């Protein structure tokens, strides 16, 4: 069969309409990787991939081509078995043609090892290494790794602010399968974004590396974090102001500081978090477990929160609400407080490595309300020791079987 002229013109037009036609710089992406469309391989833009050469410019050029591509779903490709050293880099989806862009990262991205070798971004100090901003549809995935080489940063005494990877001002974001290692500070931050799914991630840093949170969520909604392993020196997941409708499911956490909501309300701020569902998490030797922390004098709320199906193995403070959060121990008591209400703890089992397995310090002016505890048993990791609870200014209910007994939980007449 031969192509009719009309069909031939149609096929030619189709080919010409993709950026890839006649371009030596791109190749079709293997369909078994799950990506459709055209792939822009960083090697074709001059990346060395030897772990030493600075490949930043090649990534910028490959990104420019990916962003300009008129393919409906272009892919920027980072091939496996290679390491790419990158300076701080921002990928902005703002002017891209496609609303469905994939970064297939099968190789390794590494930051400069020496903090002095980090260029500042665009002349000003940058707070992150790799940033994705203003995407309407973004897939970041692959079997590769993203290594912030943070060990030299951890030794610096001053507080710096260097996040491994930031996704900001974006919608419909998927991050899958990648490994994140040794960020200078928190590994991943989602900011001012909605509809995010992070699945099958591995996030690893030493348990004593300072401020290396796994995933931080801020001003973002409809976020799902699932099937992931997070072992770092700070919170596995931390949830900050303006976050709502979050599912955190099937997570292994430890070492680290647990899953934290807050701190909220620092310096009198009005901060809000609601509809958070933490389900099926196992905490191993974490400093805290499930924690809500707020500052005295703040406004706003943390409410509609469920922690369920949780297993603890030797965590120091498994269940914590702290309305007197004060990391530097010089905080004045104030009458205002971030309100905490409608928090359910259900089916939480295992062992604590501290005596106080449950600690609820709620404020006298703004007691915690509708705190519900069901099916909880937290013994001491050392069999000869006992666990107990601390509880002040809390309203709600605890089932009779809850252990340790949380005796100050009273029936709330207002509910
Ligand atoms: C999870 O990610 C790893 C690579 O890190 C990959 O080999 C594995 O197939 C992924 N699992 C699923 C269920 O996608
Ligand atoms: C969270 O889970 C609930 C119930 O399983 C589901 O209805 C909701 O869509 C999920 N939200 C996100 C952001 O995944
Ligand atoms: C977030 O999810 C909720 C419930 O599933 C839905 O009503 C809402 O429209 C979503 N928000 C955004 C910004 O997509
Ligand atoms: C709980 O999470 C673990 C670890 O991700 C997973 O293997 C297990 O299947 C999950 N359990 C349920 C009931 O979903
Ligand atoms: C603040 O109030 C709490 C609870 O009443 C109390 O334990 C704590 O000592 C007070 N702190 C200061 C600095 O007054």
CATH class of the largest domain: Mainly Beta
- Tell me the fraction of residues in β-strands, as a range: over 45%
- Note the overall shape: elongated
Main sheet: strands, sense, barrel: 20 strands, mixed
What share of the residues lie within helices?
A: under 10%
CATH architecture call of the largest domain: 3 Solenoid
Q: Tell me which ligands are bound.
A: 2-acetamido-2-deoxy-beta-D-glucopyranose
How many whole angstroms does the radius of gyration measure?
Answer: 24 Å
Total count of strands: 31
| Spatial gap, N to C terminus | 76 Å
Q: What is the count of DSSP helices, taking H or I runs of 4+ residues?
A: 3
- Please indicate the count of domains: 2
List segments where confidence is low: pLDDT < 50 over at least 5 consecutive residues: 1-6, 8-37, 410-415
Mean pLDDT: 90
Report the structural category. mainly beta
Per CATH, what is the topology of the largest domain? Pectate Lyase C-like
CATH superfamily of the largest domain, please? Single-stranded right-handed beta-helix, Pectin lyase-like
Protein model, in words:
The chain is mainly beta and 415 residues long. The chain folds into 2 domains: 1-30 and 235-415, Single-stranded right-handed beta-helix, Pectin lyase-like (Pectate Lyase C-like), CATH 2.160.20.10; 36-212, Single-stranded right-handed beta-helix, Pectin lyase-like (Pectate Lyase C-like, 3 Solenoid). 7% of the residues lie in helices and 47% in strands. It contains 3 helices and 31 strands. It is elongated, with a radius of gyration of 24 Å. The model is unreliable at 1-6, 8-37 and 410-415 (pLDDT under 50). The protein binds 2-acetamido-2-deoxy-beta-D-glucopyranose (5 copies). Residues 222-224, 245, 247, 277 line the site of one 2-acetamido-2-deoxy-beta-D-glucopyranose.
């Amino acid at each position: 069969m031969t192509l009719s002229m009309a069909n031939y013109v149609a096929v030619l037009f189709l080919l010409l309409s993709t950026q890839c036609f006649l371009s030596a710089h791109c190749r079709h992406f293997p369909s078994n990787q799950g990506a459709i469309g055209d792939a822009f391989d960083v090697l074709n833009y001059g990346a060395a991939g030897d772990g030493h050469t600075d490949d930043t410019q090649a990534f910028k050029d490959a990104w420019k081509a990916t962003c300009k591509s008129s393919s409906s779903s272009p892919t920027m490709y980072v091939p496996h078995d290679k390491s790419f050293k990158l300076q701080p880099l921002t990928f902005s989806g703002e002017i891209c043609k496609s609303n469905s862009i994939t970064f297939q990262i099968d190789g390794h991205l590494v930051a400069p090892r020496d903090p002095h070798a980090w260029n500042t971004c665009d002349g000003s100090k940058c707070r992150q290494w790799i940033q994705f901003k203003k995407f309407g549809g973004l897939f970041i995935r692959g079997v590769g790794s993203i290594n912030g080489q943070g060990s030299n940063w951890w030794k610096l005494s001053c507080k710096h602010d260097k996040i491994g990877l930031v996704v900001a001002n974006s919608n419909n974001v998927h991050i899958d399968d990648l490994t994140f290692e040794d960020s200078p500070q928190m590994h991943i931050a989602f900011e001012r974004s909605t509809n995010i799914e992070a699945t099958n991630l591995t996030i690893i840093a030493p348990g004593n590396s300072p401020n290396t949170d796994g995933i931080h969520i801020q001003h973002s909604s409809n976020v799902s974090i699932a099937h992931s392993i997070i072992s770092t020196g700070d919170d596995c997941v931390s949830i900050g102001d303006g976050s709502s409708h979050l599912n955190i499911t099937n997570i292994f956490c430890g070492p680290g500081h647990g899953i934290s909501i807050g701190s909220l309300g620092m310096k009198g701020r009005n901060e809000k978090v609601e509809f958070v569902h933490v389900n099926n998490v196992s905490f191993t030797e974490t400093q805290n477990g499930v924690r809500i922390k707020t500052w005295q004098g703040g406004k706003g709320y943390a409410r509609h929160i469920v922690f369920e199906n949780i297993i603890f193995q030797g965590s120091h403070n498994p269940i914590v609400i702290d309305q007197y959060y004060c990391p530097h121990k010089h905080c004045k008591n104030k009458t205002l407080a971030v309100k905490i209400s409608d928090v359910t703890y259900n089916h939480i089992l295992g062992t604590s490595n501290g005596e106080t397995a449950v600690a609820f310090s709620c404020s006298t002016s703004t007691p915690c309300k509708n705190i519900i505890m069901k099916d909880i048993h937290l013994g001491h990791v050392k069999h000869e020791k006992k666990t107990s609870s601390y509880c002040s200014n809390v309203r709600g209910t605890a089932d009779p079987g809850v252990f340790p007994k949380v005796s100050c939980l009273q029936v709330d007449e207002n509910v």
